[in-house]
Write a structure and sequence with these properties.
Elements (H helix, E strand, L loop, with lengths): L11 E8 L3 E10 L4 E6 L8 H9 L5 E11 L6 E3 L1 H13 L11 H5 L5 E3 L5 H75 L6 H15 L2 H20 L4 H21 L3 H21 L4
Parallel strand pairs: 3-4
Antiparallel strand pairs: 1-2, 2-4, 5-6
Helix pairs in contact: 1-4, 4-5, 4-6, 4-8, 6-7, 7-8
């Protein structure tokens, strides 16, 4: 079928880190199969402002998959200042005063209140301009992680394209075998029907010959698999063409997998012949493998 254009799997993982001397950060980006593009951001408290930029960066490079983006921050010891959130501490003290004197509640201690989450926090030693500069640097590192993820997904896509090509060739071969069996099977069925009709006529069944001819013609249409074989061949050509085109062809391959399965089911239901039934079942098995692999394509 010639050289395949690049396609991408929806599964991949990447990590990239950066720092500005005083602080460091690390991005992790992973993706798994999904019907559309679903982005989940896991950002540290206080970094929620990056959420729109993260989603924009991911959606600019990816089309499908459940993508999870995580950010971890670290700070050099010399840059880490601490401060008491006095507003929160004052609220706790006021709340404690309301319950002062109750026998069922032990009086709160200051060290206990200081240990509560949010009372002691890292001091913010940067201004808005510094925040913007840090955001730009962190998003640049995110871009590196996304690029690595794209490369990882494309590497898996190369192996996936080869597997899909093998399945298409298998389906094509089985379709050709079904096409070769169809005339032989029709001749055998026709001969058997002629014998049965002759037996009915000789037995004086009273069925008019023109009525028998009409019923035979309708039966011939019902057992004819020419259209199913033609559509299977057309779907094989379309699947090969999509792989040649490359890009985000996952949805197109998903649709073709459904159409493949529809024609194989009809072929089996019309078979009335052991050899053709065997081919139809083999087709269904190959199509199931094609469908599973197609579901991994972006």
């Amino acid at each position: 079928m010639g050289d395949m254009a690049a396609i991408s799997s929806m599964t991949g993982f990447a990590r990239a880190s950066g720092s500005d001397g005083a602080a460091g950060w690390s991005w992790e980006v992973k993706s798994v199969n999904g019907r559309a593009l679903d982005i989940r951001c896991r950002l540290p408290q206080g970094m929620e402002r990056l959420d729109p930029a993260v989603r924009s960066a991911v959606s600019a490079r990816l089309r499908r998959g459940n993508v999870t983006v995580g950010l971890r921050l670290s700070q050099a010891p010399e840059a880490a200042g601490m401060r008491v959130n006095r507003v929160w501490l004052d609220e706790l003290i006021a709340l404690a005063a309301e319950y002062h004197g109750r026998d069922d509640i032990a009086p709160p201690r200051l060290d206990g209140m200081l240990a509560l989450r949010g009372v002691i926090e890292t001091a913010d030693q940067s201004d808005e301009a510094g925040d913007a500069q840090d955001d730009t640097a962190m998003l640049a590192t995110l871009g590196e992680a996304i690029s690595e993820l794209v490369r990882d997904r494309q590497a898996e896509g190369t192996a996936l394209a080869a597997a899909l090509t093998d399945r298409i060739e298998e389906i094509t071969t089985l379709t050709q075998r079904a096409e070769a069996l169809a005339p032989t099977r029709q001749e055998a069925l026709g001969e058997r029907l002629r014998e049965q009709v002759a037996a009915l006529v000789s037995a004086g069944s009273g069925v008019p010959e023109d009525r028998l001819a009409t019923e035979l013609a309708l039966l011939a249409v019902k057992i004819d698999v020419t259209e199913e074989i033609d559509r299977l061949k057309s779907h094989c050509a379309a699947a090969a063409r999509h792989l040649q085109e490359g890009g985000a062809v996952g949805r197109k391959l998903d649709f073709l997998a459904q159409e493949f399965n529809r024609e194989a089911n009809t072929l089996c239901s019309k078979a009335s012949h052991s050899a053709l039934t065997e081919v139809g079942l083999a087709l269904k098995a190959a199509i199931d493998q094609f469908r599973e692999q197609a579901q991994n394509v972006e």
